[in-house]
Design brief:
four-stranded antiparallel sheet; Arc Repressor Mutant, subunit A; 39% helix; alpha+beta
C-alpha cells in the first residue's frame, strides 16, 4: 500500500493544501456531511444517524478498484469545537509521519500542537479531553458495500488510538486501504484560525466548514440544506434564527458575503464571495 501513499503524498505536500498547525486539508464531501456538528448536551454519547459518505469515497483507489458503490459512517456524535480540532491533528500527524507506515507514534506535546492547542494548555485536563475525543473518532465505523451484497467491508475512520502515559506518547493506527482520506490532493483548506475566532458559535463554525466545502459559484443554499448539515435538536424557527446569526458572524469577520434570496420557493443564502485565504 506504500505505492498508493507515494502516489498521493508528494503532490499533497508540494501544493498550498499542506497541513499545518494553522490549516488542515479536508475531503470536501466528508466535511459537507453532518459528521461534525454543534455540541449539544442532549446528544453526548448518542450515535448520529448513519451518514452517506459515498461521494467522499469515490476518489479513493481501494473503493473504486474493489468495486464498492456505497459508503456510510456511523458512530457517536462528533462536535466541531473539540472533535474536529483533534481530527485535524490526526490528518496532520499522518501527513507528516504516515508515508512508511499506517501506524505512527508521536509525543503528546507535538500532537496537541498539531490540534492547534498552545503549550499553556498542555496539562492533565487536555490529555483527558483529547483521549475522549480520540475514542469518539475511533468509534466512527465505516461500511463499504456493493449494492448486490456480493462484497462488504467494515473498517473505521481511525482503527486505533492509544496514549502511553510513561512515554507520553500518542499512537495512531489507520486503515492503509483508506490512506487517501488523509492525503487526497484536491481537498479544501480549512483555516483553523477562523474556527478559533468563532469560539462561542459552533453553528457558525459548522457553517464555515460547510461553505468552505462548496464549489466555486455555488447555487443558493436553502435553510433545509443547512438544517440537515447542522442536525440541531431545536424547532425549525429557532434553527433558522441560529443560522442567520451564524452567517452574520461569518460576514462580520470578513469570510463571507452574500444575500438572502428565494430559490425553488424557499429562503436561501446566495454566496457572492468567500475569502478562502482569510487571515485574522
Amino acid at each position: 500500500m506504500t505505492d498508493i501513499k507515494q502516489q498521493f503524498l508528494p503532490s499533497h505536500l508540494a501544493n498550498d493544501l499542506y497541513s499545518s498547525t494553522s490549516s488542515s486539508p479536508q475531503p470536501n464531501a466528508l466535511i459537507r456531511t453532518a459528521l461534525f456538528t454543534p455540541k449539544a448536551k442532549k446528544r453526548v454519547g448518542i450515535d448520529h444517524e448513519r451518514l452517506d459518505v459515498t461521494d467522499a469515497f469515490r476518489e479513493i483507489t481501494y473503493f473504486s478498484t474493489e468495486g464498492y458503490d456505497s459508503a456510510t459512517i456511523h458512530g457517536p456524535s462528533l462536535n466541531v469545537q473539540i472533535d474536529f480540532r483533534i481530527w485535524c491533528g490526526v490528518v496532520l500527524a499522518f501527513s507528516k509521519y504516515g508515508l512508511k507506515s499506517n501506524r505512527i507514534g508521536l509525543k503528546f506535546t507535538e500532537f496537541a500542537a498539531m490540534c492547534g492547542y498552545s503549550s499553556k494548555r498542555f496539562n492533565k485536563g487536555l490529555r483527558q479531553q483529547i483521549e475522549k475525543s480520540l475514542d469518539r473518532i475511533q468509534d466512527q465505523k465505516i461500511r463499504l458495500r456493493k449494492t448486490d451484497s456480493s462484497k462488504f467491508l467494515a473498517t473505521g475512520l481511525l482503527l486505533k488510538a492509544s496514549y502511553e502515559v510513561e512515554k507520553d506518547l500518542v499512537v495512531l493506527l489507520a486503515d492503509e486501504n483508506l490512506w487517501e482520506i488523509y492525503a487526497l490532493d484536491h481537498q479544501v483548506l480549512i483555516r483553523l484560525n477562523v474556527l478559533s475566532n468563532l469560539p462561542h458559535s459552533e453553528v457558525a463554525q459548522c457553517l464555515y466548514l460547510f461553505f468552505a466545502s462548496l464549489p466555486q459559484n455555488p447555487l443558493p443554499v436553502s435553510y433545509d440544506r443547512m438544517q440537515k448539515r447542522l442536525q440541531l435538536n431545536m424547532k425549525p424557527k429557532e434553527v433558522n434564527r441560529s443560522i442567520r446569526n451564524a452567517i452574520k458572524k461569518l460576514e462580520v469577520i470578513g469570510y463571507l458575503e452574500g444575500v438572502w434570496v428565494k430559490f425553488h420557493d424557499q429562503s436561501a443564502y446566495k454566496i457572492t464571495f468567500r475569502d478562502k485565504k482569510l487571515i485574522l
